[in-house]
Amino acid sequence: MHRAMPASMPLQALFDELPLWLLFLLTLALVAFSIEVGVHVGRRERRHAAHEGPSQVGLATTSVLGLVAFIVGFVLGLAEARYESRREAKFSEADAIARAFARASFLPDSSRTAARRLLQRAATAGLDLEVPRTMDSAMVVLGAARDSLWTVASAEANAQPESDTRAMFVESVSDVFDAFRREIFIARYGRIPPTIWFVFLALTALGAGIVGYQSGLGSARRPMSAMAVLAVSLATVVYVITDLDRPNRGTLHMSREAMVALHETFTPRER
Q: Could you tell me how far CA 155 lies from the centroid of its own chain?
């Protein structure tokens, strides 16, 4: 049965297509535009005889900026938690494959060779899972390796149903593909929801706008240095959060040491 794609998925895919440098520039432009609008509105309000004073707006400015700081910490925590989940899933993957590879020694020669070859293929596909453009093809390879491994495991288990060593191997194979399923699920669905992104960016623009409004009320000159620092700081925060939230894109990549070390155990270097 065909399942409808969640409405948030096309929006997430569109967001993921934006390069990080472009997202940084867009956020910079959003913050700068919000500040400029705030300055313009503040100057217009200052022409009125009964306009608000900067000190009266100061409390609102402090409150909004405090809320922006809170949402920044909240979203950054979400992104970091999801990054760590993907990282832990990759280490669990490598550990499960290594355990199954070792327990394959309990099998007869023909089954042991076939099982280890399939586990090596699964490990290679696990590296391809780290790259978004090769994830779908890696999933196809993993599906084929899983079916073949279950064929080997079930044949051995049926041949000796009372064997504890066969049961241990079957359990290890199950752990391998449970780890892969967890990584795929986290990579595809363990992301910051678009609603939270919308609220975060809206509050960021509001905070920048009210800073500009307070500046426009109190001075005829734009505080260019303060505005530039605020714009760059907020754009940098959005850049880092997005980098953490995207699996294996941009500058922050998950550690590959566990899977690389696993491959080295499969093909030991000559001394």
A: 39
pLDDT tens-digit profile of 207-239? 888 888 888 777 656 667 777 888 888 889 888
First to last CA, the chain: 54
When divided into structural domains, the chain yields a total of: 1
User: Which residue range(s) make up the domain with 219?
Assistant: 30-39+54-266
User: What span, in angstroms and rounded, lies between the C-alpha atoms of 261 and 147?
Assistant: 25
pLDDT digits (tens, 9 = 90+) for 15-30: 777 788 888 999 999 9
DSSP-assigned letters across all residues of 169-217: HHHHHHHHHHHHHHHHHHHHH-S--HHHHHHHHHHHHHHHHHHHHHHHH
The verdict on residue 116 lying in a domain is yes
Q: Is residue 17 part of a domain?
A: no
